[in-house]
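Module 6 notes. Inverse folding takes a fixed backbone as the condition and produces residue identities as the prediction. Think of it as a translation problem where the source language is geometry and the target language is the twenty amino acids. Below is one complete input and output pair. Work through it position by position during the lab.
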């Protein structure tokens, strides 16, 4: 009965996520068209603006004494500032539109419907899309330094897999790393005893080892900046990197967060095991990752973690059968 309840809960959760995913893909699809209008018009608008400013310059050169009404209006609109600021405003609109396009592209790539067949996928593209979607959680905010992401990408062949599912695994592992790093930031600034709790959790520079109250002015070791490293490599079927017939790709996601105790590590792949509050975690993330990697793709997922030493998750996915002559469907064809 317990198993049945678990399975039901699982199904409910994944249905909820799939509805959300469809909704998200729909919204992004609708945003794409108007966004293209903006992107397509920013460059001409910039050119027109520059032409008009040049024309204005020519008028000023040939008619250095404008009529009083023109001079008055130039003062009202603060012409000098306008001339300086107008190209900057257009430039930042262009950059913003470009950034939006990247996000839209990433979400579209991320939420691409899985077909019943595996497809040949560029794993690095999947990682980059996931990072774009997570940008908001990684970037610096106020005194929060943000999380530095280092990409250590090896040379990978295309991997025959269910790309939507693999993206889901990457998303779960990266979210866990971000949660862990945020958690260590919170603990870093936690104040115990009767002393006042710091309102801004990123305000006081306290070393990670110092979870007790540290009075201001006491010299402290600088905390290690939060960091995630994503490493990929290809391991040929004979163990070296030269053979591309078969073999597997290994993707490692390494954080320098608080790590886990042995007791926690033993349970992380159990469904509903979580150390997070009810509004933050369901405890299904790693259970789903394991099912996708091991059952769906015949791969492996391993975790190396020690308290205070950070965490590394590594997933190994077989490259697939197409190297051996069986053609998988290439989505780009
Ligand atoms: N990178 C990590 N660093 C430290 N602890 C981790 C890390 N990744 C996972 N854990 C631990 O493993 C537990 C289980 O992770 P899992 O992803 O299955 O669930 P969750 O993140 O708690 O919730 P959900 O993913 O369903 O929102 C987490 O609650 C956390 O204690
Ligand atoms: Mg999780």
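Target side of the pair, the amino acids:
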């Amino acid at each position: 009965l317990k198993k049945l309840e678990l399975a039901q809960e699982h199904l409910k959760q994944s249905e909820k996520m799939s509805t959300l995913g469809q909704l998200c893909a729909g919204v992004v699809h609708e945003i794409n068209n108007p966004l293209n209008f903006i992107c397509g018009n920013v460059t001409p608008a910039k050119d027109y603006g520059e032409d008009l400013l040049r024309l204005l310059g020519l008028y000023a050169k040939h008619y250095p004494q404008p009529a009083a009404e023109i001079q008055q209006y130039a003062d009202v609109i603060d012409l000098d500032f306008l001339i300086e600021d107008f190209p900057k405003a257009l430039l930042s609109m262009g950059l913003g539109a470009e950034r939006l396009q990247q996000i839209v592209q990433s979400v579209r790539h991320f939420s691409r419907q899985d077909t019943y067949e595996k497809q040949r996928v560029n794993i690095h593209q999947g990682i980059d899309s996931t990072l774009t979607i997570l940008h908001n959680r990684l970037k610096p905010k106020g005194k929060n330094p943000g999380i530095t992401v280092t990409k250590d990408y090896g040379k990978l062949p295309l991997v025959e897999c269910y790309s939507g599912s693999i993206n889901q695994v990457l998303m779960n592992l990266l979210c866990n790393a971000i949660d862990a790093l945020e958690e260590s930031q919170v603990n870093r600034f936690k104040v115990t005893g009767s002393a006042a709790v710091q309102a801004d959790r990123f305000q006081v520079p306290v070393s990670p080892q110092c979870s007790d109250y540290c009075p201001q002015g006491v010299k402290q070791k600088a905390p290690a900046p939060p960091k995630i490293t994503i490493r990929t490599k290809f391991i040929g079927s004979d163990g070296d990197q030269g053979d591309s017939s078969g073999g597997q790709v290994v993707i490692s996601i390494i954080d320098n967060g608080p790590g886990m105790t042995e007791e926690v590590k033993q349970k992380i792949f159990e469904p509903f095991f979580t150390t997070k509050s009810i509004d933050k975690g369901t405890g299904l993330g790693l259970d789903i990752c394991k099912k996708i990697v091991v059952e769906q793709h015949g791969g492996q997922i391993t975790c190396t973690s020690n308290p205070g030493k950070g965490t590394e998750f590594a997933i190994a996915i077989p490259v697939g059968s197409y190297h051996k002559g069986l053609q998988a469907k290439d989505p780009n064809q």
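Reference fact for the lab report: The chain is about 50% helix and 15% strand.
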